[in-house]
Design goal:
Order of helices and strands: HEEHHEEHEEEEEEHHHHH
Number of helices: 9
Largest sheet: 6 strands, mixed
Radius of gyration: 27 Å
Helix content: 25-40%
Structural class: alpha+beta
Number of strands: 10
Shape: elongated
């Protein structure tokens, strides 16, 4: 019996669900049967089942305290290839505060109640009784590992374990940032005949709505998306005079809701007009 398998069985007997990690401290990938969640279970590793795969698929969701599963053929082969043992903290009723460097540890000692501590390669794991949502990067060098997550097993550590405090929950359950408030327009609207001669009002409304949606849907490169959207709107309606301050305000509001400043909006609008000569 491999050392990793023996450790896993000991953890399972203690009510801690283990799983094997391969080189790089990452879980074993899904088998061909479960690739791309073809098995229909555990989509994107967000829910634990159903899936009848006999191997350690689906990362944290594969963790189990069933000794027969852990010691079965597919799992035994995984344990032989494993470089480390991990566990699902949430499945054991625990939360791990992963402190990745000296600064993070100093912050924890000042702001969090003392609890069971496990040394890691670069810092410490602080273990609390209770579960919560997991999240990475809640502070510099601080990750939270509990439900739908896994942590490397490094031993039981030292010190008594404390109930999960509100101070740890607050690291993840932060209040939503205030929605940016749009600023009054500081740009001019292209002149023209005052009526879109080649499009209907419904076409203009649909175009503005699509432009708002395009900006809102941006997940990266927001500034470039805003500029390209302004350019597209102006290229269609910038010369006929159908745009009004109300239309432009809608575009600016959508951009500011994505984090663009009023100045960025104004610059993007001006640059788009300059490019098109309107």
């Amino acid at each position: 019996m491999s050392e990793h398998l023996r450790t896993a069985l000991d953890l399972a007997a203690s009510g801690i669900p283990p799983l094997p990690l391969r080189v790089g401290k990452v879980p074993f990938g899904n088998c061909r049967r479960c690739a791309d969640n073809a098995c229909g279970g555990r989509p994107n590793m967000k829910t634990p089942g159903p899936c009848a795969c006999p191997g350690p698929c689906h990362a944290w969701a594969a963790a189990t305290t069933d000794a027969q599963v852990i010691d079965s053929g597919p799992w035994r082969r995984a344990w032989l290839r494993a470089s480390a043992v991990a566990y699902h903290p949430g499945g054991a009723g625990l939360t791990v505060v992963d402190l990745d460097n000296a600064d993070a540890m100093a912050w924890a000692r000042e702001h969090l109640p003392a609890t069971q501590t496990v040394p890691t390669t670069r810092g410490e794991h602080w273990l609390y009784l209770g579960t919560m949502s997991s999240a990475n990067g809640v502070r510099p060098g601080v990750d939270i590992k509990s439900t739908m997550s896994y942590a490397r097993w490094l031993g039981f550590g030292t010190g008594p374990m404390t109930e999960l405090p509100d101070a740890v929950r607050a690291l993840v359950n932060k209040p939503a940032p205030a929605r940016p408030v749009s600023q009054p327009l500081a740009v001019s609207v292209p002149g023209g005949g005052g009526q879109c001669r080649h499009r209907t009002p419904a076409f203009l409304e649909r175009g503005i709505a699509m432009a708002e949606q395009r900006i809102t849907a941006a997940t990266s490169g927001v500034h470039a998306t805003v500029y390209r959207t302004f350019l597209a709107v102006l290229s269609t309606h910038g010369r006929c005079g159908c745009l009004t301050d109300a239309h432009v305000a809608r575009l600016f509001t959508a951009a500011q809701a994505k984090g663009e400043s009023p100045r960025h909006c104004t610059d993007a609008w001006t640059n788009a007009r300059t490019t098109l000569g309107v």
